[in-house]
Amino acid sequence: MRPFELLAPETVEDAVASPGTFLAGGTTLVDLMKLNVLTPRQVLDINAVPLRGIDTTDGLRFGALERMGDIAGHAGVYPVISRALLLSASQQIRNMASIGGNLMQRTRCSYFRDVAMPCNRRVPGSGCPAIEGANRMHAVLGTSDACVATHASDVAVALVALDARLRLVSESGTRTVDLASFYRQPGETPEVETDLRPGELIAEVVVPRLDWASNSTYVKVRDRQSYEFALCSAAVALRVEDSRIVDARVAAGGVATVPWRLPAVEEALRGAPATVTAFEEAASLAAEGARPLSANAFKPSLLRRTIVRALLELTEGNHS
């Protein structure tokens, strides 16, 4: 780790006025600083900044510094969000990590985290060895010839499924962006991962009210039961009336370079009977456009099965 200056602003105004890298829980930033992947000269500890609070009166609102564990345990949080948070990491990390920091976490690609290796996200133009190398954990959707790294956040997948928005603050004011459009697919500029502008800070996560999201879940498939990143995941909310699907929200993780919304699957589910056959037909659309690599050709099939599993979980006893 290289030397750096640590500052601790106590107001939003002071935080966004100071050049530097924001530090909340530190569960990602500190790791990357130890590896010299990130070498900020100035770090801003923002934990004293008043960006906390959980409001469930009309939809959901989370202050960016709210800890993952506190949100997961809150009674008014939709199950898909709570479950995604609980499956994200160990209890110790959930107690430290902030929701804003989780949404801003960097990829877990081993080439990105190894400064001895080329990586277009870390050093633009240096190459992407994962395309021909160790790529079992990598993406099959939203990839480019410059990058195939998978987005790491679980809760971002759930939030994208529910049309969450971010409130961003800077010296020039406040703006609100859809979380789905906040993340950028790599294209030819994989080093630009989000729509966050210089000096901007995530202040709040806003989830619109969706009463039927009480029937929702997050299914995560991984190599071991705990403390592991997803090979594939599905965030699903389902509205079922008289054994027929009225509405659906579906997003996937572990298979794409960004949290991956699946509108074609949602459209196929709307109006369909809550049956295994209908679920399988809708899920067959999930991997359209996939570009498997040498070691992850199993992911399109795994994605389809994961979605069906989530749908079955939400309709147990109502399908045939």
Automatic annotation (TrEMBL):
A molecular-function term among this protein's GO annotations: FAD binding
All copies of domain FAD-binding PCMH-type, residue ranges: 1-212
EC number(s) reported in the record: 1.17.1.4
Keywords, alphabetical: Oxidoreductase
Annotated Pfam families: CO_deh_flav_C, FAD_binding_5
Source superkingdom: Bacteria
SUPFAM superfamilies in alphabetical order: CO dehydrogenase flavoprotein C-terminal domain-like (SSF55447), FAD-binding/transporter-associated domain-like (SSF56176)
Coiled coil stretches, renumbered: none
Signal peptide, first to last residue: none
Top-level class of the enzyme under EC nomenclature: oxidoreductase
Identification of the protein by name: Putative xanthine dehydrogenase, FAD-binding subunit
Source organism (scientific name): Amycolatopsis japonica
Upper lineage: Bacteria, Bacillati, Actinomycetota, Actinomycetes, Pseudonocardiales
